[in-house]
Amino acid sequence: MKKVNLDSFAKTAMIAAIYTVVSLALAPFSFGNIQVRMAEALTILPLIYEPSIWGVTLGCFLTNLIGAAMGVNPTGMLDAVVGTLATFLAAWCTYRLRNHTIKGFPLWSILMPVIFNFFFVGAELSALYFQGNFVLGLLIMGAEVAVGELIAVILGWLLVKALSRTKIFE
Predict the structure, then answer these.
(1) In whole angstroms, how far apart are CA 81 and each of 10, 36, 44, 67, 92?
(2) Is the pLDDT of residue 82 over 70?
(3) pLDDT at 157 over 60
(4) Per-residue confidence (pLDDT) for residue 168, from 0 to 100
(5) Helix pair angle (77-96, 107-129), 10° resolution
(6) Summary mean pLDDT of the chain
(7) Rounded to an integer, what distance in angstroms lies between the CA atom of residue 7 and that of residue 139?
(8) Closest Cα partner for 137 from 121, 149, 156?
(9) CB 92 within 8 A of CB 109
(10) Does the pTM exceed 0.90?
(11) Which of 16, 25, 56, 145 is 20 to 30 A from 113 in CA distance terms?
């Protein structure tokens, strides 16, 4: 692990803050089975900035925790653990797979948030709402979450393309 300096710490904290503010400001769209959590666009940042893994993870945790406390997160505290784990693993895999491209496009990296949220958040929602048939619930809820996640990561890819032209993460 690299040594953390003040600049890196500040950028990581800013990513977490942006993730949290955007998610909570758009709370009606950020929680539940049909969601487009716009802040999930930031899960693509590890393509260009490794410490953003921690920023999106912290932002997701704070979002889910505050959302549960405010009553806008229907899955409650469970999401603070399961959803945060999904975001951490997705961001970490996005970083690890960043150099595995198809004709220069990091498809596998970009799909990581979609795949992890399909399984983790889909399983979480299925356990809560499809107690009679977990597998069917996972497929339905996971697909609904994955569609919203795909929208967010496409926006994230556009964001990363724009930010990579700046020197903000150097």
Answers:
(1) 24, 19, 20, 13, 16
(2) yes
(3) yes
(4) 87
(5) 160
(6) 94
(7) 42
(8) 121
(9) no
(10) yes
(11) 25
